[in-house]
Queue: 3 jobs
Job 1
Amino acid sequence: MPLRYYDFYAEFPKRLQATEGKQIHLKNIPTGFVTYFGVHGARLKDKFPWFYMEEEATFVGSPANDLIEEFSTVPISMPALTLLALIGGTALALGSNQILRHARLPAVTLVMGGGIMLATVCITERYLHDFYPALIIFAAAGVPRIESSRRAVPLTGLLALLSLISVALNCSFSLINQRENLGAPPAKMAEYEHLQGSINRFLHRPPPPPD
């Protein structure tokens, strides 16, 4: 749909001009790819819960990006799924059995479907989920490959560790989004700030400066 039909863009002509009136731009794909699949997907701050999403995209060329919201990246926020997907991608490419060969079509289709968001004018965390279906197919193809590997035990241990990292990061992102970004009720905001102060005192650290 042309952006001139969006009320938001009709109210801000400069945004409409910056995006050339279109939601999809092929020239945005390199920026979208290196941003969502790069390693700059989190920031450290000196206050609980410490791990915050990234705010600055990695630009390639002259993309027509209009809005950059906080975001994480596939390898940073989903390291276990990323590793499994990479292993599964090799298995799908080799196609050692009929099941894997049959899985190629849905895998490629889901990559293409999710990849559309790489060309959009906005970079945001919620668009990252468009790749979940493809990642799950690739990861599922990687599980049997790990099971049959001579390094199955250390690989499983590594995946467990990466899964814990993923859970910690995403819990942190969720808490921040609920308590700092979406206008939580004042009582919950006060409770959250009290928790941050208590943790800083426990760690013998001075309170963080206000944002």
Job 2
Amino acid sequence: MLKKVLPLFLLAALAVGLVGCSTTNSAQAAAPTTDAFYGGRGYGRGGPQGGGAVAPQEDFGSSALSLPASDLSDEEAQGLLYMREEEKLAHDVYITLYNQWHSQIFSNISRSEQMHMDMVLGLIEKYGLDDPAAGKGLGEFTNPELQALYDKLVAQGSQSLADALKVGAAIEEIDILDLQSRLAQTDNADIQQVYQNLMAGSENHLRAFTRTLEAETGETYQPQYLSQDAYDAIISSAPSFGGGYGGGRGRGGCDH
């Protein structure tokens, strides 16, 4: 099983760095399609024009999979299944909003979310669980709560570009809080490592969405789920690179 899932994580280390820098419409950036995102796992470097990626110094996804498997509690198993679909929710919302608003940040971050999905899938396969996202198309979920949340967020993000950017930030807030809860429920080192790196990615994405909102609209984002203190701490901190990451700048010329 390890040999089967390990290669997909050769690309996963880009996940915490791949965020959108260019937020203007671009005729050069084609809208991503469902087939492009569900036809395979992971992505190569870069992405649609206007983005960029931090060059990884260590493949944290494969290093997590190389750790010995531990006993998996029902709570830990349910956490993996939930986080697989929650990362899919972020990915699918961003694809949908990119296709509507053509703001590059949604395209770039959706690619990062695909890598997040792949990291969790590696653990699901490692522990012999059934993938809840298998056979599900764009905007389709096994978990009814996540299905309802997807529908709600897409409706909100369809009202204006500002609302869409606020939806992106809200998704990252939710993801951070859920990852914090799931981390408290596990003592498995491989799961902890993946969750910690997903959280680093979500913090980067939150900073990117809020920065873009202010640049595009002049509006200062107000946290919807995190406490003000927790939000301020994330926004004021340096970009996170997760386990094994060093500093660097993406080819798009912005901090990730």
Job 3
Amino acid sequence: MNRAIGLLSVAGISAGMMYLFDPDRGKRRRALVRNKAEHASKIATAAAGKTQRDVRNHLLGAFAELESLFRSEEVSDDVLEARVRSKLGRIVSHPHAIEVKAVEGVVILSGPILADEVLPLLDTVIAMHGVKNMDNRLEIHECAGEVPALQGGRKRQATRVGPFKTNWSPTTRLLATATGGALAIYGFKRRGLLGSTLSSLGMAVVTRALTNLDSRRLIGLDGPVKGVDAEKTIKGIAA
């Protein structure tokens, strides 16, 4: 067996040398290989730099959040209003219908809002740094009905965090690849039903991290929905 592997290795090296040092086309082939190697090196360097910056930003953000827990600095009303407004688009389907005002750390919310969006909005605002209290003056509606400010809009999904996000950050993908790979190797070594389950789970995590596709898109469950949306868009443009 070792002799056969050795012969195959020698044959492969010989074929590669003949391919690269062919008298007629060897120079061009070597140039192509060199260009591809340089291109791959640039891509790897750029990806490593992006991941490094993302990890640094995550660490700085975590330290800032930790530091804010032990600070009692006052946040100006203007800054507080801007922070709350920046969150509205992720929580409610009609952010422009909500009026935000801050007075000495007390956030006053007013305007029409759908009933199922009230609690997520209040929970988010009260948890924000600098908010001392809230004054809820919202006009709650079970449905949009004929309320002008609640017409149209887009239903917002619950905010996902960490690994539940649709698009993973480079840091999350790096950690998921390492964790999934270790889990897959452990499963292969353990064998049996448990080993097969662990290795399959690890490979699934690695695939999710490398493709950066949501699990539903990865297995094709979102395909028909996208097709319908695209068809509606095309028909709308044609009309």
